[in-house]
């Protein structure tokens, strides 16, 4: 995985760009219907989990949530369990996205430091330190877009390092923790000012199924971890709460998703 | 367990061969991502945020691939497909849950292409793509996306 948005191609860009003639066409007319049952190719298994700011940006367009109210702070429990540390790491990075929405410098600085502490516990200081520093540098300049990008890169780097060392289960825990914190925050905002457009953002059955499948595929050691087991059970509840004929999510469904994700977060953060 | 000298020599050579091949594959896959990022450049100028996570790999020439991805109504998305193959013919399309195309503004260049999507609903979409070459048996690819 390449973590830098401006890698070595920048130096080649000017030469290449001159040599290229872009051709634009409306593709709607050319594309045929897609039928999964008769698709002649491969479906790539890998799922890219959206970052919380994707959903937050829509919530911003639909109203003006009080993001400061959604901040929880980063009082993380002491543990040496790598599954728990990975889940916590994911929640802290997601908390970073909330802090960026709130444009709270102090909160971002605290989160940046906590990210580094957790990386140390996970043995990933070397990989994470540059990102943590970039987060602090960007917040100093009030460059919120850069902070958001760094949080995304931090999570991607940690997952990449874990996957590189065949630490797939822990990488999944990072994603899972992040998604749960993002979902808790999104459901909190939606519940405060419910309407169908906001609630529709919680229509994410594919992601929940992906996480459930990930846990099913984990080692028996991972699956026997109390927190991972609780999350597995909680995901079943969340998945049921996302059932919808027309994509509409009712207020009651929002409450169930929120309550379940909050309970799982409390278990992760031992609150 | 103690291994004989010829066996140890064989394993050492095999390890060297693997070690020498791996960076080559990664280099070309990384290059495919670099091209996807070239496709992203004008979108970034228009306010798109590029996601750091992306899909990539190496497949048989012209092999059709699909990824399923969660999109949120209210955001505008762009997908960027890149390849290190120089004579590539690229295809990229996005479909809704009913299999209807939802992408627009397909733009192609030598090593990359892009589409935009305004998802009509929040949910799962399928991105279908392929890289076709007249010369290569295998092709590298990278698919990235961004939103605004």
TrEMBL record, chain B:
<feature type="signal peptide">
    <location>
        <begin position="1"/>
        <end position="27"/>
    </location>
</feature>
<protein>
    <recommendedName>
        <fullName>Secreted protein</fullName>
    </recommendedName>
</protein>
<keyword id="KW-0732">Signal</keyword>
